[in-house]
Amino acid sequence: MSHIMIAILVSGGLFSFLAVIMVIADNTIADYGEVKITVNNDEELKVEGGKPLLKTLMEEDIFIPSACGGRGSCGLCKVKVNTDIGGYLPTETPWIEEEEQKENIRLSCQIKVKQDVEIEIPEEYLNVKEFETKVAGIRDLTHDIKEITLKLIEPETIEFKAGQFIQLRVPEYKLTDEPVYRAYSMASSPSRKNEIELEIRYVPEGICTTYAHNYLKEGDKVIINGPYGEFYLRDNDRDIIFIAGGSGMAPIKSIITFMAEENIQRKAKYFFGARSQKDLFLVDRMKEFEEKLSNFEFVPALSDPEENSNWEGETGLITEIVDKYLESGENKEAYLCGSPGMIKACVEVLTDNGIPDELIYFDEFG
């Protein structure tokens, strides 16, 4: 038995070694020369072969949404590939449904441009722009969330829907040897066309969050691109359920600000989950919205309030609080922003209370 185990370990090690060699060879030795990308049967791009499709398109000023910056962990950067480029990679299949595979939908961050290829992308992606901005302000919202205000330089204005997101480029620094992109929802109103606000929560060793919290300074130049996303308020008369936690506040704040500016008096409840009082922020701003919007109610809830605190609000998991307040799902739609686990749990509560899946819109982040 020991000889069999040794043989298995040796074989496994050999295969792993060969896999590493193949990756190194593909990245350093292989020369694919100039290849052609045809976009939507119209535009032809002549590019250097060998790079991921997502990065190659970005270098040609065609921006595909990618919340994870090309790590294959968000599933957003989907494109239709009309050329045979080989089978699906293990890093793609968790994100691409069976029906999508039949239509040759691929993750652009995972496939490399090694030959002439024809792709199809939504026309709106061709209208996404890159913006040069300057950091106009940085302030602490909580112990681990910063609000960063970016003033647009070129172009000077941006058009977006409340709830959409941009991608922020982090330059080379201690944690990365090349520029990387991360997605952040805009917290400001679309009416402020010459600047945007971001709410960035610190994640230890996170490339972008570490840069934003520990390196970024007022006056620094920052490159962004956008806008992206289908997370925005639908135009109807349904009652609204908002649910968020942490920096998930950003797109919800943008939508509620838009509602206040446009005097949209739909009935709405905003459930915001936090661990303790130190994790709550913009409470006064939400109270101002309650005064401007007669049918709007802000319901913060703490899952673990500090002992001997003066907290008099709701206590418990946000799913418990939503279930407590939600009498029925009739004539309601919901907008959720938070971690995948929070989103999944909230969707279950909402559907159990009668809100159809197709009326639950969410923006999830890892």
UniProtKB/TrEMBL annotation:
It comes from the Bacteria. Residues 128-234 form the FAD-binding FR-type domain. The keyword Transport applies. It comes from Candidatus Mcinerneyibacterium aminivorans. Residues 33-125 form the 2Fe-2S ferredoxin-type domain. Keywords: FAD, Flavoprotein, Iron, Transport. InterPro entries: 2Fe-2S_ferredoxin-like_sf (IPR036010), 2Fe-2S_ferredoxin-type (IPR001041), Beta-grasp_dom_sf (IPR012675), Cbr1-like_FAD-bd_dom (IPR008333), FAD-bd_FR_type (IPR017927), Flavoprot_Pyr_Nucl_cyt_Rdtase (IPR001709), FNR_nucleotide-bd (IPR039261), OxRdtase_FAD/NAD-bd (IPR001433). GO terms for molecular function: iron-sulfur cluster binding; oxidoreductase activity. This is 2Fe-2S iron-sulfur cluster binding domain-containing protein. Signal peptide: none annotated. The keyword Transport applies. Transmembrane segments: none annotated.
